[in-house]
Amino acid sequence: MPPWPIEDLEDDVPPAPAAANASPLLERLTVRCHSRQTPMIHRFRCSAPGCDMSWTLPRQSSRVLKHASHECMFIDEQLKQLVGAVIAGKRG
């Protein structure tokens, strides 16, 4: 399935409040947004400036973490290392 066109996504303003059980790391890695064409369609996009990756709701932490650790070419190096440590901790 092709990725959702990034030019159709617009950040939610004001940002939707995080769920009570939301991971602080996932909150840093993603931004809640919606389709400009169909505003009732909500997604999460990668928070790294320049990245066009997005996910449908609910976001799956495994997909977001995999993207942040291995796929995203735009993520801050410190954040990438933090993601790597979280993934390593889940395996160990």
Which tags fit this structure?
about 90 residues; alpha+beta; 4-stranded antiparallel β-sheet; about 35% helix; globular
Give the SSE layout:
Elements: E1 9-11, H1 24-29, E2 30-35, E3 42-46, E4 54-56, H2 61-71, H3 77-91
Antiparallel strand pairs: 1-2, 2-3, 3-4
Notes on the protein architecture:
With 92 residues, this protein is α+β, with helices and mostly antiparallel strands. The protein has one domain (6-91). The chain contains 3 helices and 4 strands. The protein has helices at 24-29, 61-71, 77-91, and strands at 9-11, 30-35, 42-46, 54-56. It has a 4-stranded antiparallel β-sheet. The protein is globular and about 40 Å long. The N and C termini lie far apart (33 Å).
Largest sheet at a glance? 4 strands, antiparallel
- Please tell me what the overall shape is: globular
Give the beta-strand count: 4
The average pLDDT value, as a whole number, equals: 90
DSSP helix fraction = 25-40%
| Distance separating the two termini | 33 Å
SSE sequence, one letter per element: EHEEEHH
Total domain units: 1
Query: Counting H and I runs of at least 4 residues, what is the number of helices?
Result: 3
Lateral arrangement of strands in the main beta sheet: 1-2-3-4
Instruction: Give the low-pLDDT segments.
Output: none
Name the beta content range.
15-25%
Give the C-alpha Rg: 13 Å
